[in-house]
Write a structure and sequence with these properties.
By secondary structure, this protein is an alpha/beta fold. The chain contains ten helices and eight strands. The strands form two sheets. The protein has a six-stranded parallel beta sheet with strand order 3-2-1-4-5-6, sandwiched between helices. Strands 7-8 form a two-stranded antiparallel sheet. It is globular, with a radius of gyration of 19 Å. The model has no long low-confidence stretch (mean pLDDT about 90).
C-alpha cells in the first residue's frame, strides 16, 4: 500500500507539523517495524529535528522524500501512483483534501475542525478522532478557536488510532477501494463547478436580503 503525505506548496516546516506530519511518521514507522507492506511518500521539506529523530526510517526503502518543486503534471502523476492520502491535520485543508479525492485516493484524516464537512467516517474516508476540541474547535457562537501546540509533540493515543486505521486499510483492500471510489464520486458530484455556480449566486442573494446583509449594504460606500 502506497501512502502519500504532502505539506503546503511552500513546504514550510511549521506546516509539516500542523498537517500532522509527526503523527504520520510515528504511525508509519511502527507499520514498517511490524513488517507491514507499505511505502510512504512525503512531499515536504523536513525540519532538521525530524530528519534526526527518524533518520533510520527515512533512510529505509519504505520512504521517499520529495522536497523539490513539482509542476502540476509531476504532482498529479505522484498522487496517481499512491493509494491512500494522509491528512491527520489540525483543521481542514480544503484544496488538498478535494484534490486527493479527485485523484482516487482513500482518505485518512483527523477529526479537526471543518473536515467532517467533506469526510464522512467509513463512507468516503476514515476520520481519526482526538484533535477536535484540543487543537481546533468551534464555540457556541460559531467562533473558531485554534491551539496548534499539541501538533508539535507526541500524541500516543492519536498515533495508536492512526496506526489502527492504516493497518485496517492494508489488510482490507476492498474497503480501501470502496472508500476511494466514494471519495472520488463525492468530489465530482458535490464539489463540481456547476454545483458551485448554481448555489453561490442564491447564497449571495440570501446575504443581501437578511437583516445583516441589509445593514451591511446600507453602510457600504
Amino acid at each position: 500500500m502506497r501512502l502519500f503525505f504532502n505539506n503546503s506548496w511552500h513546504g514550510e516546516g511549521h506546516n509539516f507539523y500542523v498537517r500532522g506530519g509527526l503523527f504520520v511518521l510515528k504511525a508509519c514507522e511502527r507499520l514498517y517495524r511490524d513488517g507491514v507492506p507499505m511505502h510512504l511518500t512525503l512531499r515536504s521539506y523536513l525540519p532538521a529535528e525530524i530528519t534526526t529523530r527518524f533518520r533510520s526510517f527515512l533512510s529505509s526503502d519504505a520512504v521517499t522524500v520529495v522536497d523539490d518543486y513539482l509542476d502540476w503534471e509531476q504532482y498529479s502523476a505522484l498522487m496517481n501512483s499512491c493509494h491512500v492520502y494522509l491528512i491527520p491535520a489540525a483543521r481542514i485543508h480544503v484544496y488538498s483534501l478535494l484534490e486527493s479525492m479527485y485523484h482516487g485516493l482513500a482518505i485518512v484524516a483527523s477529526d479537526g475542525w471543518g473536515i467532517r464537512n467533506y469526510v464522512t467516517h467509513d463512507v468516503n474516508g476514515l476520520m481519526v478522532a482526538g484533535l477536535y476540541g484540543r487543537v481546533s474547535w468551534q464555540d457556541d457562537n460559531g467562533q473558531l478557536s485554534e491551539d496548534y501546540r499539541a501538533m508539535f509533540s507526541d500524541n500516543p493515543i492519536f498515533e495508536e488510532s492512526l496506526y489502527v486505521a492504516l493497518s485496517d486499510l492494508v489488510h482490507d483492500d476492498a474497503k480501501r477501494r470502496r472508500l476511494a471510489t466514494a471519495a472520488q464520486l463525492f468530489v465530482r458530484n458535490e464539489g463540481s463547478i456547476e454545483r458551485f455556480n448554481s448555489e453561490f449566486g442564491p447564497f449571495l442573494d440570501r446575504i443581501l436580503t437578511d437583516d445583516y446583509g441589509t445593514e451591511a449594504a446600507a453602510a457600504a460606500p
